[in-house]
C-alpha cells in the first residue's frame, strides 16, 4: 500500500467505528425520545419532520463519535521529534 | 521435516517510504464440494429472505416494515412500539450470545456461512465469474493492457454489479418505506430526498464492500475478526491442515501417486500433501491454511472441498484439511460438547424464552397519567376538592378499543363526567379526567391508581397518579 493507502486506512479507522457507534447511539436515543417532542422543546416555530430529526440526530452523533476517534488517532500517532516530519 | 529448505514467501517492498506492502489482489478459484453447496444454500436462503420479505403482505400489512416516521415496527404481523425497545435490546443480546455459542462450538461459522459480507461477496464473485471467466481468465484479463475487449468486459461487470447493488439498496429502503409505494415513486421519478440518499448510500456500500473491498473488510474493518479468538479454546472446531499427515509436502510423479495407497507400510519420504496449492488458490482471503490458523481465515471451508477433491483424485483419504480441534490434532479425543458450550446454550435458551414471553405478554394498551401542571388542586365552593389529569392512552393492538377510566382507591373520590373514548388501532389519545373529593374527605398527597377498563368491564391497564388536597381544610 502506498502513502495514500496508509492515510486511507487511517481515515477508515476513524470514520468506520464512529459511523457504527453513531448508528447504535441514534437507535437507542430515538427509541426513547420522539424527535417531534424534541422539536417542540427546542425550536417550536420551525416545522420538523421525524425523518429530518433522525437525520440531524444521526449526523450529530457521528460528529461526536468521529471527533473522539480522531482524538484517539492523533494521540496514537508517534509525536514528531527533532523537527522530523511524519 | 525439511523445514530448512522451505521457501518463505517474502518480497522486497518498493521504496518511497511506504511502510505498507500493497495487498496483492485475491483471485479465488471456483470450487465445488459439500461445504460449498451448503454455503450456496445459505446464500439463497438468506438473500431470499432479504429480497422477498418486503414484497410479502399479510392482511394488507407488509410482512416486515420498520416504519420510522410513524415510530412503529411491523414484524410478522406483530406491531412493536418504541416502548417495546427493550425487546430489541434483548434480541441483540441473544444475537451476541448466539455468536459466542457458535464460535465456541465451531469457530467462525458466522463468517463463513451467514455474514452479509460473505453472502453478498459470493453473489458479486458469481457475477464476476460469469462475465470475466474463471480464475486464470480473470488474472490474464487484469494483466492484459487496456483494449476494447477488456473495456467491454470490465464495463459489463461493473454495470451488472451496479444494477444488483441498486436493487439491493432499493430493497433495503423497502424495509423502512412500504416497498410498493417506493417502487411507484421510483417508476414515476418522484423519490423523496432521504429515500434516494439511502438507496444510493446502501447501493454504494454493497458495491464497495462486496465488489471491491471483499476480504479486506474481514481483515481490516471487522471487529469480530479481532476478538473472536477470545472465544476459541482447544476444543473448538476449526478448519485445520493436518501437519503430521501432510508433511513433508511435495510434488510427486504419477507413478509415485498410484503407489502411495498401496505402499503404506513402506517408509514414506513424503507426506500426503502433494503441494498442489489448490487450497491456496480457492481461498477468498488469499491465505495458506497449511501455515496454521490465521486471523484472516473466514472459515469458508473452500480449502476443505478443494483438498478433498484432490485427495479423491490421487487416491488418498479425505480430510487432510478438515474441521477438527486443536486437541484432536494433538492426539487427544475431541470433546465438542463441554461445559462452556452447555453454559452458553442454557443462557441462550433462557434469553430466548424471556424474549418469547416478552413478545406474547406485551400490554395491548399504554396508559400514562399526567397531573395538571397549573394547579395541584382546585377548591370548589362548599369545600370539595378537584384534581385534573390528562391520561395519555395508546392503543397498541390491531383493533379498535372502547374504553373508560375509573379511579381505584380507598379514598372517597369519584370521576366527574364520563371519561370514555373509542380508540382506533394504533391511535394515541389524551383523555382529560377530573377527580373530585367531597368536603373534608381527603388531605395531603395521596397515591391513587387510574384503571382503564374495556366495554365488557375487564381491566386493560393501570397507571399511577397522585391526588392532592390541602393539609388543613
- Order of SSEs of chain A, N→C? HHH
Judged by helices, strands and strand pairing, the structural class of chain B is: alpha+beta
Shape of chain B: elongated
Name the beta content range of chain A.
under 5%
Percent helix of chain B: 40-55%
> Low-confidence stretches of chain A at least 5 residues in length (pLDDT < 50)?
none
Distance between the termini of chain B: 100 Å
Mean pLDDT of chain B: 86
Mass-distribution shape of chain A: elongated
Q: Return the domain count of chain B.
A: 2
Number of strands of chain A: 0
Strand content range of chain B: 15-25%
- Number of alpha- plus pi-helical segments of chain B: 16
Rg of chain A, rounded, reads 18 Å
Identify the most extensive interface between protein chains: A-B, 18 and 18 residues
Main traits of this protein?
heterodimer; A: about 90 residues; mainly alpha; 3 helices; elongated; B: about 475 residues; alpha+beta; Immunoglobulin-like; 2 domains; four-stranded antiparallel sheet; about 20% strand
Amino acid at each position: 500500500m502506498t502513502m495514500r493507502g496508509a492515510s486511507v486506512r487511517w481515515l477508515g479507522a476513524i470514520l468506520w467505528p464512529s459511523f457504527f457507534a453513531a448508528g447504535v447511539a441514534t437507535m437507542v436515543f430515538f427509541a426513547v425520545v420522539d424527535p417531534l417532542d424534541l422539536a417542540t422543546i427546542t425550536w417550536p416555530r420551525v416545522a420538523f419532520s421525524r425523518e429530518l430529526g433522525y437525520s440531524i440526530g444521526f449526523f450529530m452523533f457521528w460528529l461526536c463519535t468521529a471527533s473522539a476517534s480522531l482524538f484517539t488517532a492523533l494521540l496514537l500517532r508517534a509525536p514528531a521529534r527533532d523537527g522530523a516530519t511524519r | 521435516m525439511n523445514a530448512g529448505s522451505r521457501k518463505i514467501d517474502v518480497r522486497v517492498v518498493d521504496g518511497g517510504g511506504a511502510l505498507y506492502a500493497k495487498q496483492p489482489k485475491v483471485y479465488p478459484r471456483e470450487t465445488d464440494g459439500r461445504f460449498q453447496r451448503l454455503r450456496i444454500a445459505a446464500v439463497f436462503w438468506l438473500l431470499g429472505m432479504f429480497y422477498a420479505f418486503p414484497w410479502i403482505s399479510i392482511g394488507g400489512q407488509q410482512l416486515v416494515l420498520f416504519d420510522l416516521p410513524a415510530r412503529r415496527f411491523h414484524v410478522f404481523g406483530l406491531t412493536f412500539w418504541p416502548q417495546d425497545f427493550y425487546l430489541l435490546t434483548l434480541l441483540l443480546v441473544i444475537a451476541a450470545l448466539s455468536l459466542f455459542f457458535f464460535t465456541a462450538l465451531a469457530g467462525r461459522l458466522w463468517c463463513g456461512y451467514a455474514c452479509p459480507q460473505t453472502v453478498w461477496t459470493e453473489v458479486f464473485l458469481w457475477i464476476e465469474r460469469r462475465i470475466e471467466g474463471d480464475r486464470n481468465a480473470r488474472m490474464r484479463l487484469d494483466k492484459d493492457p487496456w483494449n476494447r475487449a477488456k473495456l467491454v468486459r470490465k464495463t459489463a461487470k461493473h454495470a451488472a454489479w451496479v444494477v444488483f447493488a441498486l436493487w439491493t439498496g432499493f430493497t433495503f429502503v423497502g424495509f423502512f418505506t412500504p416497498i410498493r409505494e417506493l417502487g411507484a415513486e421510483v417508476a414515476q421519478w418522484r423519490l423523496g430526498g432521504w429515500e434516494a440518499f439511502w438507496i444510493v448510500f446502501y447501493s454504494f456500500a454493497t458495491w464497495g464492500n462486496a465488489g471491491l473491498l471483499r476480504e479486506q473488510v474481514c481483515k481490516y474493518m471487522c471487529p469480530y475478526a479481532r476478538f473472536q479468538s477470545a472465544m476459541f479454546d482447544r476444543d473448538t472446531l476449526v478448519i485445520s491442515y493436518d501437519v503430521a499427515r501432510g508433511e513433508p509436502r511435495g510434488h510427486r510423479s504419477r507413478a509415485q501417486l498410484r503407489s502411495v495407497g498401496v505402499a503404506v507400510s513402506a517408509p514414506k519420504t513424503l507426506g500426503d500433501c502433494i503441494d498442489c496449492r489448490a487450497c491456496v488458490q480457492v481461498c477468498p482471503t488469499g491465505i495458506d491454511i497449511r501455515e496454521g490458523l490465521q486471523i484472516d481465515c473466514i472459515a469458508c471451508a473452500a480449502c476443505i472441498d478443494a483438498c478433498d477433491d484432490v485427495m479423491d483424485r490421487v487416491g488418498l483419504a479425505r480430510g487432510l484439511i478438515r474441521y477438527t480441534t486443536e486437541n484432536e490434532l494433538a492426539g487427544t479425543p475431541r470433546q465438542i460438547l463441554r461445559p462452556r458450550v452447555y453454559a452458553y446454550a442454557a443462557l441462550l435458551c433462557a434469553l430466548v424464552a424471556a424474549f418469547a414471553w416478552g413478545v406474547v405478554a406485551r400490554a395491548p394498551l399504554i396508559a400514562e397519567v399526567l397531573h395538571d401542571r397549573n394547579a395541584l388542586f382546585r377548591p370548589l365552593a362548599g369545600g370539595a376538592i378537584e384534581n385534573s389529569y390528562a391520561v395519555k392512552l395508546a392503543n397498541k393492538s390491531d383493533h379498535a378499543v372502547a374504553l373508560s377510566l375509573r379511579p381505584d382507591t380507598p379514598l372517597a373520590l369519584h370521576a366527574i363526567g364520563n371519561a370514555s373514548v373509542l380508540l382506533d388501532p394504533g391511535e394515541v389519545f389524551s383523555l382529560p379526567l377530573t377527580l373530585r373529593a367531597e368536603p373534608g374527605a381527603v388531605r395531603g398527597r395521596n397515591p391513587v391508581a387510574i384503571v382503564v377498563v374495556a366495554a365488557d368491564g375487564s381491566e386493560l391497564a393501570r397507571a399511577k397518579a397522585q391526588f392532592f388536597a390541602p393539609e388543613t381544610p
